[in-house]
Design a protein that fits this description.
With about 375 residues, the chain is an alpha/beta fold. Helices cover about 40% and strands about 15% of the residues. The protein has 2 domains: about 120 residues, Aspartate Aminotransferase, domain 1; about 220 residues, Type I PLP-dependent aspartate aminotransferase-like (Major domain) (Aspartate Aminotransferase, domain 2, 3-Layer(aba) Sandwich). The chain is globular and about 55 Å long.
Length: about 375
């Protein structure tokens, strides 16, 4: 007897938003010598995080606090909001699933940019929503006016917007976000993915209003804090939205050590600020490297830079050529961004390795 699945699950293709570098290493039969494709932090975690994890290891046999009380309290103090405005999840990826599950019924429309962060699409498909795609504009930026128009036309339940954006690295000023929020239908929630918030221009993010029922903002410890493997993110929303999430979230999903690590990371703002400075220096290195090689880049406000190879076929081939040289990078899959190769800012040593590999790969291209 074969297993019985729901019609929705039975119709879904076998897919994953990202093929992990470990999978790629197994395919190629060797590890990558330079891992700069997944937008992980090349600069690790704070020494305070490592000390806190070491001290907590003897309690790893205990379950975590399902209310995330200490972490939510610290985040509330940081942002000047109430603990009831905060929900903790398994990175932004987990929170995106929570948002979709809570908000989108079977067949309801959800709007996003074509080629934007694919994990959001993965959850929409998995919960039976209907994806409506809007192309990036000619400058490889989110087309806010077109996104809003699509949301109004389709009666969308959610509009997803990453700012700073992944995979382009571009940034929308606060007035563009305010326009989107004010122009959306009354029952459409703006999902503002701010995974790269720490790398945005100082003071340029949209003001944080935790009392706005039209908005949920998502943040992560994966980037500037270097905790991608710990899977900790948080959402900022009104208390009624957070209370709705509490009805369905996985209460033990963010483990004890992950909560301890995130709390310790919050206690070392100087370390995170140092990572942001190191990333800015790395972006300048990448821009200079691209200029020497005659390649354009997109001005980035993230921890990666998109290199323009001129055509989708060339960017696809470049990923393969760098793979052959032991360098892991990724490329967007949808025009107009599919002509780019997206490269995470590595350590100075990793950047030097890329500076050796990329010209050789270009010559082969």
């Amino acid at each position: 007897m074969s297993a019985k699945f729901t019609p929705l699950v039975s119709q879904l293709p076998a897919t994953t938003p990202f093929v992990g570098p470990e999978t790629l290493e197994r395919r190629r039969g060797a590890p990558f010598r330079i891992r700069i494709g997944a937008n992980e932090s090349a600069f690790g975690a704070s020494p305070k995080v490592r000390a806190a994890l070491t001290a907590e290891l003897e309690r790893a046999a205990w379950y975590c606090d399902p209310e995330h009380f200490d972490l939510r309290s610290a985040l509330a103090r940081l942002h000047g909001i109430e603990r009831e405005n905060l929900v903790i999840g398994e990175g932004i990826d987990g929170l995106l699933g929570l948002v979709v599950r809570a908000s989108v019924a079977l067949g309801e429309a959800v709007v996003t940019s074509a080629g934007a962060y694919p994990t959001f699409n993965y959850h929409v498909n998995g919960y039976g929503g209907r994806l409506v795609f809007v192309p990036y504009d000619a400058q490889c930026r989110n087309d806010v006016e077109a996104l809003v128009a699509a949301a109004r036309r389709e009666g969308a339940r959610l509009l997803y917007l990453a700012n700073p954006d992944n995979p382009s690295g571009t940034f929308l000023a606060a007035d563009a976000v305010a326009f989107a929020l004010d122009a959306l239908p009354a029952d459409c929630l703006l999902v503002l993915d701010e995974a790269y918030a720490e790398f945005a221009p100082a003071g340029a993010l949209a003001p944080l209003d935790a009392a706005d029922p039209r908005l949920i903002r998502l943040r992560t410890f994966s980037k500037a804090h270097g905790l991608a493997g710990m899977r900790v993110g948080y959402g900022i929303a009104t208390p009624d939205v957070v209370a709705a999430f509490d009805k369905i979230r996985l209460h033990f999903g963010v483990g004890r050590l992950s909560q301890v690590a995130a709390l310790a990371a919050l206690g070392d703002a100087d370390f995170a600020a140092g990572v942001v400075r190191a990333v800015a220096a790395g972006r300048r290195d990448y821009e200079a490297l691209a200029a020497r090689l005659g390649l354009a880049t997109i001005a980035s406000q993230t921890n990666f830079v998109a290199f323009d190879l001129g055509a989708a076929e060339r960017s696809q081939r470049m990923v393969a050529l760098l793979d052959e040289r032991g360098v892991f990078v990724r490329r967007p899959g949808v025009a107009p961004l599919d002509r780019f190769v997206r490269i995470t800012v590595g350590t100075p040593e990793e950047r030097a390795g890329l500076a050796d590999a990329l010209p050789d790969a270009l010559a082969a291209l």
